[in-house]
Amino acid sequence: MPYRRLPNTNQARLRTMRVIVDKASTVADINSLPYSLRSLEEARAMLVKYDKVVNEYQACSNIQAKANKKYQQELKMARLYVSHFIQVVNMCVLRGEIKKEYKELYKLAPDSTMVPDLSSEDKLEEWGINVIEGEQKRQLKGGTPIYNPSIAKVKVFFEIFVESHRSQKILQANTNRKMEEVIALNEAVDKIILDAWDEIEKTFEDLQGEEKVAKCQEYGIIYYYRRAEKRKMAQREAMEAENDQMENF
Q: What's the CA gap between 61 and 55, in Å, rounded?
C-alpha cells in the first residue's frame, strides 16, 4: 500500500486545497462529499487567504530577481573600477610618482601592493569610500590627479552600485517579509489538508487496494509508492502486457 505525504511546496498546497474546494461544485448534493462541510469551509477560507499571500510573495521575489540582473552588472563595474584604481595607485608608487606614505590616505598599507578583499558588497562599499576620500585628501596636499581611471569615473560607478545595493536590500527585506507570512500560514494549511485527507480515507476505508487509492487521489490525496511496490507494479504490468500479447496471438 502506498503512503501519503503532505504537499511540501506552496504551489502544491494551493493545488491540494483547490481540489478540496473545487470538488464541491461537481456534486449535486454537497453532503455527498467524502469530507465534512467544516473541512470544506476551512479550505475555502484558507485558500483565498493563502493564495493572496503566496502571490504577493511571488511578485516580490520576481521584482527582486529582475532588479538583481541589473544590479549584478553594476556591482561588477564598481568592483572593476575600485580594484583598477587601487592597482594604479600601487603602480604610481612603484614609479615614484606618489610617495608610498600617501597610500595611508587611502587606508592602504604603504609596503603592500595587494588589492584589498573586494569580494563582498560591504567590503566593496568600504574600500570605495576609502579610495574616493583618499584621492581627495591627496589632491588637497597638492598631488596630481590620477587618470585612467580618474576618481570621478570611479565615483560614478561606485555611487550607482551603492544606490542599487541599498535598493536590493529593501527588495530582499520585502521578499523575506512575505516569505515569513507564507511560512506562518503553512502549519494551518497543512492541518486543514490533513483533516480533510483523514476524512476522505475514512469514507473510503471499505474499498481495497488500487480502487481505494484511486478514489482518494480523486479528492487530492497525494500517494507515493515505495521502491519494492514500484517493482511489483512494474512486474505486474509486464505480465499483463505479456498475457495480452499471447491472447492476441
A: 10
